[in-house]
From TrEMBL, chain A:
Protein name as catalogued: sn-glycerol-3-phosphate transport system permease protein UgpA
Organism in which the protein naturally occurs: Sinorhizobium numidicum
Coiled-coil positions: none
Similarity comment text for this entry: Belongs to the binding-protein-dependent transport system permease family.
Principal location listed in the UniProt entry: membrane
Species lineage: Bacteria, Pseudomonadati, Pseudomonadota, Alphaproteobacteria, Hyphomicrobiales
Source taxon at top rank: Bacteria
Keywords: Cell inner membrane, Cell membrane, Membrane, Transmembrane, Transmembrane helix, Transport
Alphabetized Pfam families for the sequence: BPD_transp_1 (PF00528)
Annotated membrane topology: Multi-pass membrane protein
TrEMBL record, chain B:
Keyword annotations from UniProtKB, A to Z: Cell inner membrane, Cell membrane, Membrane, Transmembrane, Transmembrane helix, Transport
Protein name according to UniProt: sn-glycerol-3-phosphate transport system permease protein UgpE
Originating species: Sinorhizobium numidicum
Xref: SUPFAM superfamilies: MetI-like
Domain of life, source organism: Bacteria
Pfam families according to UniProt: BPD_transp_1 (PF00528)
Transmembrane segments: 12-34, 75-99, 106-130, 159-180, 201-226, 261-282
Gene: ugpE
Domain ABC transmembrane type-1 span(s) in chain numbering: 71-282
Subcellular location: Cell inner membrane; Cell membrane
Length: 296, 295
């Protein structure tokens, strides 16, 4: 990173970096330190000095069955969301990469859902996938109670996963298409000459060459599913965590605990666990999956 | 030319049309529903054909959720976030790439770490900071001098509060950094030979050259700012500051009232439109920016 470094002034870089550094200190590092501190103290509800309580907040959190429920819900949400977005993005990228007439238009259209906020999408999908009207009403007319996200937690979880996957599929599509375009054409053309059909070429050449991109998307989408802005927004605006805690993801529970339950210490302890969990995931993914990824 | 078979081509089209139905289908349902009457929107089976009531429904949604205020506020918030990011990240990247200073590695890592911890997991203490901005400074002054200062300043219900904490991450810095690194050394050398200082070089050469990056970052940040949900929800209690995402709730049909989903869908269409237009128009730069920032 020392390639450039042509100017010698010592105060000018500080001046240029200062506004962003100041904002980051105030709104990033200070709150990040506060989370760590609050997780180990108990703020008295009526003011006064905070009391150091060690791991007590964490013990309370782990003793709460609803907390474990939110961990399971988050895992299912994040895992299913990741798999759907990557599979849809991959299939569409492989199709568009064949560059048939009209591919350009499809490429333009597939990216559009990314522009939509999770909560706004959630609102629309509440209509689109409502049990009484829209598309699913006809199915419910034949099989009563086949689909009812307002009543069954599992249906509601499927609903929020669909919204998440819809919004993010175009995003994985962009990266996978960019990845496919960097696969040397000589490789696929040679395979075609040897008589390998499109599916054979996808499985034996294109997908293995995409491994680094797929790995990157796996890490990004898992994290997005766990702590992303849309995860909270979709759940909060679409199902409100219900029915029966069925869609209560970890971020939702943290915000609920802090601003409804006014339990800052508990919420902070949960935040720390969440951060730890993301770090563990990222580590596992690097440790075990990266080995099977072939970089050029 | 890669060999083509009619079967493979047909199969590819089937996949692409399925993708279209999955990803664009919801927009068609929203548009159809938003342009129907109350009876039509609630009819089973659903009619996918758009009707002619879009403007009436949009007008109803407009007044029900006071969308004029909400759209203005969202526009201000998204613009502030975009402008702040585009300007501050360019400055930081300039400091990191073009100067020989021991602090550059420190700046780099300090900015880099912010990518790890999204607002959602540190939202509780960030809220506390925004509610009492001078708290950190009071502690600092007390620690240094022992004097207890009692100044308070809160950012709740303000545009600064809506935008500043969102500007405090590093997304854009890396986009600029990567671009600056690709510029040849000779460029800055030539500027120096010509006698122009670093500031002149930044404004007259670097910024005009970074136009593509700026457009890319502008698209990404506008979508990011416009779509903020949790933060405005916490920061804003005064209805005159509410954003479009907060007006979603007002658009929902009430529990036991008329299921006027046509109005709801028309309203959500209005709320979805601005970022959708920005992405559609600036798509080429948007994609370039996405692929460059994340990798």
């Amino acid at each position: 990173m020392d390639k450039h470094s042509v100017f010698k002034s010592w105060w000018l870089p500080i001046l240029f970096a200062l506004p962003q550094i100041a904002l980051i200190l105030l709104f990033f590092y200070w709150p990040a330190v506060a989370v760590m501190q609050w997780a180990f103290t108990l703020e008295p509800p009526f003011g006064g000095a905070a009391e150091f309580v060690g791991w007590a907040n964490f013990q309370d959190v782990f003793a709460d069955p609803f907390y474990w429920n939110s961990v399971v819900v988050s895992l299912i949400f994040s895992l299913c969301g990741t798999v759907f977005t990557i599979v849809v993005g991959l299939v569409l990228a492989l199709a568009v990469e064949r560059q048939l007439p009209g591919s350009g238009l499809f490429r333009f259209l597939y990216i559009l859902p990314y522009a939509i906020a999770g909560p706004a999408a959630g609102m629309a999908f509440r209509f689109i996938l409502s049990p009484e009207r829209g598309l699913m009403a006809s199915v419910n007319a034949i099989f009563p109670d086949f689909w009812n996200p307002a009543k069954y937690g599992s249906h509601a979880l499927v609903l929020v996963i669909i919204i998440f996957a819809w919004k993010w599929a175009g995003y994985t599509f962009i990266f996978l298409l960019a990845g496919l375009q960097s696969v040397p054409r000589a490789l696929t053309e040679a395979a075609a000459m040897d008589g390998a059909g499109p599916i054979r070429r996808a499985v034996d050449i294109q997908i293995p060459m995409l491994a680094p991109t797929l790995f990157f998307l796996l890490v990004i989408m898992m994290t997005e599913g766990f702590v992303g802005a849309d995860t909270f927004g979709i759940v909060h605006n679409t199902t409100g965590g219900g029915p029966n805690h069925g869609t209560e993801v970890m971020v939702f529970r943290i915000v609920d605990e802090a601003f409804k339950g006014l339990n800052y210490s508990g919420a902070s302890a949960q935040s720390i666990v969440l951060i730890g969990l993301i770090m563990v995931f990222t580590f596992i993914q690097f440790r075990f999956i990266e080995k099977r990824v072939h970089y050029k | 030319m890669i060999q083509r078979t009619p079967f493979a081509d047909a199969f590819t089209y089937v996949l692409m049309v399925l993708g279209f139905l999955l990803l664009i289908g919801p927009f068609i349902v929203i548009l159809a529903g938003a342009s129907q009457t109350l009876q039509q929107v609630n009819s089973v089976p659903f009619q996918f054909v758009p009707q002619d009531r879009l403007l009436e429904n949009a007008a109803a949604a407009w007044s029900r959720a006071s969308l004029a205020t909400a759209l203005t506020n969202s526009l201000i918030m998204a613009s502030l976030v975009t402008f702040g990011k585009v300007v501050l990240s360019a400055c930081t990247a300039f400091a990191i790439v073009f100067f020989r200073t021991p602090l550059k590695h420190f700046f780099f890592w300090m900015v880099f770490i912010t990518l790890m911890l999204p607002l959602e997991v540190r939202v509780v203490p960030t809220y506390a900071v925004a509610a009492d901005l001078f708290h950190p400074f009071r502690l600092l002054i007390a620690a240094l001098t022992g004097i207890e200062v009692s100044v308070e300043w809160n950012l709740l219900n303000s545009y600064a509060g809506l935008s500043l904490p969102l500007i405090a991450t590093a997304t854009g810095t890396f986009l600029y950094r990567q671009f600056f690194m690709t510029l040849p050394d000779e460029l800055a050398e030539a500027a120096r030979m010509d006698g122009s200082g670093p500031v002149r070089f930044f404004f007259d050469m670097l910024l005009p050259l970074s136009r593509t990056n700026m457009l890319a970052l502008t698209t990404i940040m506008f979508v990011y700012g416009w779509n903020q949900y949790l933060w405005p929800l916490l920061m804003i209690t005064d209805p005159s500051y509410k954003t479009t995402m907060m007006s979603l709730v007002a658009l929902l049909p009430s529990e036991n009232g008329t299921p006027d989903w046509n109005v709801t869908l028309a309203g959500s269409l209005i709320i979805m439109a601005p970022p959708l237009i920005v992405v559609a128009v600036l798509q080429r730069w948007f994609i370039r920016g996405l692929v460059a920032t994340e990798k």
